[in-house]
Amino acid sequence: MDAAARQRLRKLEIGALRLVDGRFLGEWSSNVRGQGLDFQDLREYVPGDDVRHLDWKATARSGRPQLRRFAEDRQQNIWLAIDLSASMAGAKAELARELLAVLGWAAIKQSDRFGVLGFTDRVEIHRPPARGEAQLWASLEDIIGHEAASPKTSLRPVWDFCSRQLGHRSTIVVVSDFRAELSPRALGALTGRHELLAFRVADPRDEGRLAGRLALVTDGETGERSWVDFSRRGMGRKLAEEMSRSGEELRREFRRRGAWYAEFRADRDFLPPLMEFFHRRREAMGA
Predict the structure, then answer these.
(1) Which residues pair with 214 in a beta bridge?
(2) Contact 214, 230 (CB under 8 A)
(3) Beta strand residue intervals within the chain, DSSP E
(4) What is the pLDDT of residues 240-274, one digit of tens each?
(5) First to last CA, the chain
(6) What does pTM read for this prediction?
(7) CATH number, domain 3-32+74-285, options 3.40.50.720, 3.90.930.12, 3.60.20.20, 3.40.50.410
(8) DSSP labels for 17-35?
(9) Helix (H, G, I), strand (E, B), or coil: what is residue 126?
């Protein structure tokens, strides 16, 4: 790794240490660690117990309210998957790495096992689950120093890898700009077995750099080039509306398939929306 890459790694390390405080760890624990639960046994209900855990069939058989007890499954792993395709260059790549560093550091502080995937239209980086700081810094070093074999994006290899290779129920966090087909059938098969958190990263400053001029636009993934007149009236508004529309479509599709979705902008602090996302998800789960 060259000096510039090491400097970026050090910056990520310092940022993660600064941002992962007690409040963040509380949200992380409620959102991730508490989801791997195995049924343990039944006991009789006592006032004050959570009625959501009542076993109605056992209650009917015994004639007395019966409560299900659960034990946390510590074999549950966390997977952090990051998009390495050409459309993720620049500020979006930096934001994705920052998210990975913070989530990885939270996992370290809670002694959680986590694995890392780097993908384009194939899985290019695969680091199996492990605990500890060495796992995170080695993963970030892999990602920072990696030259992608393909500029394109496909989510299908990620869905397939997780569905076929992960034996235990896992929490999977995918960080991408999602400029690819979602492959709904494969996505549905994945969310039937695992928890999926889809984090979309965007850089709205791209719109500002283009506004008011004629630009030769190159699609980073296909290589196609075309001239676009961004000085045309209303073009900036149309770009913003298109970004918003695509985000809403992604949100609806992920929700339809049983996944969670959040958006992060490269021109804003990502921690407040990340905390808000975890808080909303915890409330929805009744944790």
Answers:
(1) 229
(2) yes
(3) 37-44, 66-72, 77-83, 114-119, 123-130, 170-176, 195-202, 214-218, 225-229, 260-265
(4) 677 778 889 999 999 999 999 999 999 898 988 99
(5) 42
(6) 0.76
(7) 3.40.50.410
(8) HHH--HHHHHHHHHHTGGG
(9) strand
